[in-house]
């Protein structure tokens, strides 16, 4: 497959107003698609812009966001690491929305095959469906992390062809979805039926207040994700006054950057989509600046990956066994002695004895404390319930 069939070069207008830059500025470090497609040999991370805004009427303006984000991103100084990143340019609007979705799907499939982590600069969050379908035949147990103010799960949507992306992810056939972790949602936007549906499927839902009170607890949630859908609607309008649905409440800019870094550090993550920045509203470039900084933190997180999946044979872990007062059952925890990250074992049910003996779930010290207090950690219980099906 030739990626240049789907991707147009980064326009010259992006470079015209950069001003004086340092040799360490990302514009001088990233291999950018201008006259020809970059050589992807040895590339770790690729950027793709998607200039699609036709899916819903309120999305007018999001097509401008990829290039606006680039104008701010290119000015930033590279992290301290020796990075190998390529900006592959933009997917232009196709003859139909379906053509755009096909192009994004095809590009992501090619980059998955080359084991290149992809940053998607949307466009609206409806594009996340093409991001999801790119994993068909690649990953049979997909873990998805979503940051959004709403749970987009309208089961009776009269026009679900492109919108309502979460419903489309969950009902997609063949089914290769293992888990969805939804963070940052705000209760007054979420129907009880959506919460009930998530609970029935043993998906994880963490409201905005819960996440903000324990930001460090989101790291284990991101550690297991294969793909991330990050809507800028989840960030408060005071920090990004250019989201599609400007909300007075939401994540602070610093918290959004922290979440992006956690995502980059995820051992298995291969794509992240940043969606719902409305370029027409971004008068003072505050939104595109924040988005560029989130991308910077994601890159920094990627180059700080631990790749520390625990095994019994590893000497890098302390093993803690907890038992419960009224039973002989135990939960086994692993603590990495170098980075202090925690994991716990969840056994496969007997009827799935053909599987390996245990499933490793990222967790935190707080989960270990719960077990010491004779309480089964919620993360353990949900993982156990999912393995039953």
How would you describe what is shown here?
With 389 residues, this protein is an alpha/beta fold. It folds into two domains: 3-302, Arginase, Chain A (3-Layer(aba) Sandwich), CATH 3.40.800.10; 317-387, no CATH class. 29% of the residues lie in helices and 19% in strands. The chain has helices at residues 13-16, 65-73, 97-113, 128-133, 165-171, 192-200, 208-213, 218-223, 253-265, 286-302, 365-372, 378-387, and strands at residues 31-32, 45-50, 85-91, 117-121, 142-147, 177-185, 204-207, 227-231, 271-275, 317-323, 330-336, 342-347, 358-363. Helix 2 (65-73) crosses helix 10 (286-302). The chain is globular and about 70 Å long. The mean pLDDT is 91.
Oligomer: single chain
CATH topology value of the largest domain: Arginase, Chain A
**SSE string, helices as H and strands as E:** HEEHEHEHEHEHEHHEHEHEEEEHH
Query: For the CA atoms, what is the radius of gyration?
Result: 21 Å
Our estimate of the beta-strand percent is 15-25%
Query: What is the mean predicted local confidence, pLDDT?
Result: 91
Gap from first CA to last CA: 37 Å
- Shape descriptor: globular
Largest sheet, in brief, is: 9 strands, parallel
Structural class: alpha/beta
> pLDDT under 50 segments (min length 5)?
none
Number of domains: 2
């Amino acid at each position: 497959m030739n990626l240049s069939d789907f991707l147009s070069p980064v326009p010259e207008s992006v470079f015209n107003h950069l001003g004086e830059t340092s040799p360490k500025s990302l514009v001088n470090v990233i291999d950018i698609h201008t006259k020809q497609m970059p050589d992807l040999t040895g590339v770790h991370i690729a950027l793709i812009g998607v200039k699609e805004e036709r899916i819903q009427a309120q999305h007018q303006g999001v097509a401008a966001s990829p290039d606006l984000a680039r104008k701010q991103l290119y000015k930033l100084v590279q992290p301290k690491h020796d990075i190998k990143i390529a900006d592959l340019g933009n997917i232009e609007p196709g003859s139909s929305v379906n053509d755009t979705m096909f192009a994004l799907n095809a590009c992501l499939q090619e980059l998955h095959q080359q084991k290149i982590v992809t940053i998607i600069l949307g466009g609206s969050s409806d594009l996340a469906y093409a991001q999801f379908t790119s994993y068909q035949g690649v990953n049979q147990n997909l873990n998805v992390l979503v940051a959004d103010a709403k749970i987009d799960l309208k089961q009776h949507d009269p026009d679900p062809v492109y919108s309502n992306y979460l419903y489309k992810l969950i009902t997609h056939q063949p089914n290769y979805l293992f888990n969805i972790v939804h963070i940052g949602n705000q209760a007054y936007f979420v129907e009880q039926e959506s919460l009930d549906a998530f609970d029935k499927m043993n998906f994880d839902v963490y409201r905005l207040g819960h996440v903000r009170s324990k930001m460090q607890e989101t790291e284990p949630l991101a550690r297991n994700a294969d793909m991330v859908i990050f809507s800028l609607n989840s960030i408060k309008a005071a920090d990004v006054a250019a989201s599609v649905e400007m909300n007075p409440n939401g994540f602070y800019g610093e918290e959004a950057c922290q979440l992006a870094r956690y995502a980059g550090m995820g051992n298995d993550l291969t794509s992240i989509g940043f969606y719902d920045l409305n370029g027409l509203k971004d008068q003072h470039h505050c939104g595109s600046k924040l988005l560029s900084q989130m991308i910077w933190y994601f890159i920094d997180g990627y180059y700080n990956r631990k790749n520390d999946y625990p095994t019994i044979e590893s000497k890098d872990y302390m093993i803690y066994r907890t038992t419960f007062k009224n039973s002989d059952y135990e939960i086994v925890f692993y603590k990495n002695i170098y980075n202090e990250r925690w994991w716990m074992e969840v056994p496969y049910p007997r009827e799935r004895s053909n599987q390996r003996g245990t499933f490793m779930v990222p967790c935190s010290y707080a989960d270990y404390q719960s077990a010491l207090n004779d309480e089964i950690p919620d993360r353990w219980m949900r993982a156990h319930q999912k393995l039953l099906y």
